[in-house]
Amino acid sequence: MSLGIYIQVPFCQTKCTYCNFHTGVVTRDRYQPYVEAVCREIEKSGAVPHAPVDTVYVGGGTPSLLDPAHLAKIMDTLRASFRAELLEATLEADPETITPAKAAEWVAAGFNRISLGSQSFDDRELQAAGRMHRRADIFGAVESLRAAGIRNISLDLIAGLPHQTPESWERSVDELLRIRPEHVSVYMLEIDEGSRLGRESLAGGSRYSARSIPDDDTIADFYETARQRLASAGYEHYEISNWGLPGHRSRHNLKYWLREPYLGFGAGAHSFDGMMRWANAHDPARYVACIEQGSSPGEQFEGLTPMQVLDEELFLGLRLLEGVDFARIEREFTPEFPARMASLRERIERLQSLGFLEREGSRIRLAPDRLTVSNEVFVQLLG
Ligand code: SF4
User: Fold this and answer.
1) Half-sphere exposure (CA, 13 Å, Cβ side) for 243?
2) Does ligand 1 have an atom closer than 6 angstroms to the CB of 189?
3) pLDDT for res 1
4) What is the sign, positive or negative, of the torsion defined by CA atoms of 20, 25, 31, 33?
5) Which pLDDT tens digit goes with each residue over 208-259?
6) Is the Cα torsion angle 171, 176, 180, 182 positive or negative in sign?
């Protein structure tokens, strides 16, 4: 089975109000030592025999902030260290960081897919969320990428940003469809303690326009509107948050949901070899120090028990609209966990009778009109 490689670049220009990722704003002089450390980590890993690599995803953070020469160095190091037969090489980019010259250098470095953090086409929403780009930047970025020869662009939208209304959401979906990217992600805003906006909203405060966040039902309506409009426009809905024109599903991200192996390099990057999961130190300074001292940046190692594998097969596999082959899961796990499988069968039947799950032959899947409550369904199924 081919391997995916993920490279984490945890730097941003500013911190968006809703962001709950481990990213930070640092001075540009920190970029080069970080890139050197990532390349050393790649070289060290590549010294051990691995399966061929067919996908690379450079994400963050805002990797497009790096000098294109840094990104080219990472790609060169990958090709020199692994057997790389790259079908998909994605770079995450923020619209305001893209110039025609940078886009051309990314293509020369080997990137063939750009995931553009568009989020919204409404300038008021973008400003309130602390984004650096505006609507016009998205159109300019797409033009530069197309001119450079990029034929695979992913755009994303966030449903639930402060000030979002049914009209502004419709306009954002309209504009996105006008661009007609090959791939689309639609995320629902997460309100949790991990972001400034989430904390403010939970505390009932008004900073970051927290009181202008649409309510949950409205956010769910936004998602449903997008789902219907994308389907009418020919996009295949293949994962809860992801759509692609035919032939443009994200090969790399599919590995996560199908539990295929991937290696992550950089601060906070996660890896999975089929039996074990591990993650690097989150703090970039600590990560660089570990690499420079020749020690492993890996911090959390978790060998999966068969029961954990069973749970993962379900909650990751059910994120895919095609669902999971439950007959295969039964064959594989019933001999070892007969009681657990009996309980799962009962729960599946109950969720099916309530309309949350559907069954077709041996496959079970989330009902398409219940995707907005997928987390609750997973809790009911596995909790
Ligand atoms: S949302 Fe993206 S660009 Fe904004 S701070 Fe988070 S990682 Fe950076």
Assistant:
1) 25
2) no
3) 84
4) negative
5) 999 999 999 999 999 999 999 999 999 999 999 999 999 999 999 999 999 9
6) negative
pTM for this prediction:
0.97
- Let me know the angle formed at the C-alpha of 106 by 272 and 7, rounded to the nearest 5 degrees: 20
* 20, 23, 132, best to mutate for ligand 1 pocket (most atoms within 8 Å of CB): 23
List b or e across 202-218, with b for residues whose CB sees 16 or more CB atoms inside 10 angstroms: eeeeeebbbeebbeeeb
Does 209 contact ligand 1 (Cβ within 6 A)? no
Indicate whether residue 163 lines ligand 1 (CB < 6 A): no
89: tokens are 């090489």
The residues near 196 (Cβ < 8 Å, ≥ 6 apart) are 15, 17, 18, 207, 208
pLDDT score of 300 more than 90: no
pLDDT digits (tens, 9 = 90+) for 303-338: 999 999 999 999 999 999 999 999 999 999 999 999
Is the CB–ligand 1 distance for residue 62 below 6 Å? yes
Cα(130) to centroid(ligand 1), Å? 9
Question: What torsion do the CA atoms of 231, 237, 243, 249 make, to the nearest 10 degrees?
Answer: -130
Give the residue, by CA position, lying nearest to ligand 1 atom 4.
16
Distances (CA, A) of 306 to 318, 323, 353: 18, 20, 28
Please tell me if the CB atom of residue 12 comes closer than 6 angstroms to any atom of ligand 1.
yes
Residue nearest to atom 1 of ligand 1 (CA): 19
Helix (H, G, I), strand (E, B) or coil at 131: coil
Answer whether residue 70 shows pLDDT above 90.
Answer: yes
- Cα angle 304, 310, 315 (rounded to 5 degrees) comes to 105
How far is ligand 1, taken at its centre, from the CA of residue 378, in Å?
A: 27
How many C-beta atoms lie closer than 10 Å to residue 83's C-beta?
A: 14
**Residues 35/73, Cβ–Cβ less than 8 Å:** yes
